Amino acid sequence: MSTNQNATAAQNSPPYFHVLAKPTGAVCNLDCKYCFFLSKEMLYPGSRFRMADELLETYIRQTIEAQRSSEITIAWQGGEPTLMGLDFFRRSIELEQKYARPGQTIQNTLQTNGTKLDDEWCEFFREHKFLIGLSLDGTREMNDAYRVDKSGAGTFDRVVSAARLMQKHNVDFNVLTTVHAANADHPLELYRFLRDELGTKFIQFIPIVERTTPELINIANKGWGEKLKDRPLYVQAGNQVTDRSVKSEQWGRFLIAIFDEWVRRDVGTVYVQMFDAALASWVGAPAAMCIFSETCGTAVSLEHNGDVYSCDHYVEPGYLLGNILQTPLVQLVGLEKQVKFGDDKRDTLPRYCRECEVRFACHGECPKNRFIQTPDGEPGLNYLCAGYKAFFKHIDHPMKMMAELLRRGHFADEAMAILEGERAVWKARTGRNNSCPCGSGRKFKKCHGEMCSKTDPARPVTSSATSVDTENRP
Ligand code: SF4
Ligand code: SF4
């Protein structure tokens, strides 16, 4: 790049951007069947897949220097980042302390499968206030369907032990649950397991959509681990999905079932990232998750060798921006190519989305999932559209209520008692086959009538607030 191009790129860079760093690249000690990221090892044949000390220092220095915000996040992901060993992260903390400017605070986040954690790791996380994301897909049966180790054995016991260890050491963690063919039909069993048995209060749900082509579908259905013969490199192409992927309507039903439980009893006590993000949209605050923002492109992915890609979901040759050992991060993030990548999220929306009544909350979700056609044949509709549309329409009434409460300086959780009273009135006045009074257009028995029959009076309404100014947790 010329000096002028460098200067333009640096000026174009957003005031704050997020970097997901992968110190071991795609290398992991597990072999989760849906993890297409395992195939990204193929991008670096012969590599040792370990971030070198020189690169670690360059990354930490450039990240801290580039951010115009006083709060900086250093985010570790994989593969499995704990395979680097604890000394790598001790060194990372040393470097953060070396380069942090006065007034800057640095939050470290780390996404892990938990299988390597012990007391020493947890003490370190606690001491340095790491926010940990723990991957667990629900009960033993749900988790072990796909989350297996290299020998094919389930990982449930090891992950639950990691959660218990972190609870013992007061490590701040949330659970990341992917939603797929083996758990999507059991939303309440899953949610109640996480909330009541595991005892977690921070939950993230991510839909598994493994995209592929008709030519590769049979191989893709076998998984993405290195033992699989002829495994392809996963790229965002094709309009078919693997058998493990969640179906669109199933995703909508999953979210609706959990939302109905949450809005009856858990607002303010259980944080579900998707629901907080939706509340931000109803309040009119900036989107709390990139998938629901109008544009994106401010969350790049850093490989173990310094290569930077447009996004964690686009680690493939066409989306390589450059390498931070040659070009500073701030310039890579500001490249015209990257700005266009982010703007395309808005600029390529099909008309069906542009005219959609819940566009303000959905914005066509992530471009990686936009591979089906609209009802009138336009390409570029999100595979999960039907599910999101059903979900966002279903939550409109309680979301409006919570947004209004917040605008008036009240707490969102006050909505639980109001909705409870409202449901009692609706139940007394509305026939099962009549339209639901919430305005969804569905029959009462298929909408809020279902909630009326599931009321659980055992748990008291709490008074703590749900903040709409939420962090996009790992
Ligand atoms: S491509 Fe998807 S995941 Fe990546 S930044 Fe954009 S919305 Fe987020
Ligand atoms: S719900 Fe469907 S039509 Fe509406 S914005 Fe989202 S993807 Fe587009």
Number of strands: 14
Helix- and strand-based class? alpha/beta
Q: Ligands bound here?
A: iron/sulfur cluster
Main sheet properties = 10 strands, mixed
Low-pLDDT stretches are 455-474
Provide a count of the helices: 18
Supply Rg: 22 Å
Question: Overall 3D geometry?
Answer: globular
Strand content: 5-15%
Question: How would you characterize the overall build of this protein?
Answer:
The protein is α/β, with parallel strands linked by helices. The chain has 18 helices and 14 strands. The protein has helices at 3-12, 53-66, 86-99, 119-127, 140-144, 156-168, 187-198, 217-220, 248-265, 273-283, 329-333, 336-347, 351-354, 359-362, 385-394, 396-407, 414-429, 448-452, and strands at residues 18-21, 71-76, 105-112, 131-135, 172-179, 202-207, 211-212, 240-241, 271-272, 299-302, 307-309, 320-323, 372-373, 379-381. The strands form three sheets. Strands 9-6-5-4-3-2-1-10-11-12 form a ten-stranded mixed β-sheet. A two-stranded antiparallel ribbon has the order 7-8. Strands 13-14 form a two-stranded antiparallel sheet. The longest helix has 18 residues, at 248-265. The two termini are 33 Å apart. Residues 290-291, 296, 299, 311, 313, 345, 366-368 line the site of one iron/sulfur cluster.
Give the topology, please.
Elements: H1 3-12, E1 18-21, H2 53-66, E2 71-76, H3 86-99, E3 105-112, H4 119-127, E4 131-135, H5 140-144, H6 156-168, E5 172-179, H7 187-198, E6 202-207, E7 211-212, H8 217-220, E8 240-241, H9 248-265, E9 271-272, H10 273-283, E10 299-302, E11 307-309, E12 320-323, H11 329-333, H12 336-347, H13 351-354, H14 359-362, E13 372-373, E14 379-381, H15 385-394, H16 396-407, H17 414-429, H18 448-452
Parallel strand pairs: 1-2, 1-10, 2-3, 3-4, 4-5, 5-6, 6-9
Antiparallel strand pairs: 7-8, 10-11, 11-12, 13-14
The structure holds iron/sulfur cluster (SF4) (2 copies).
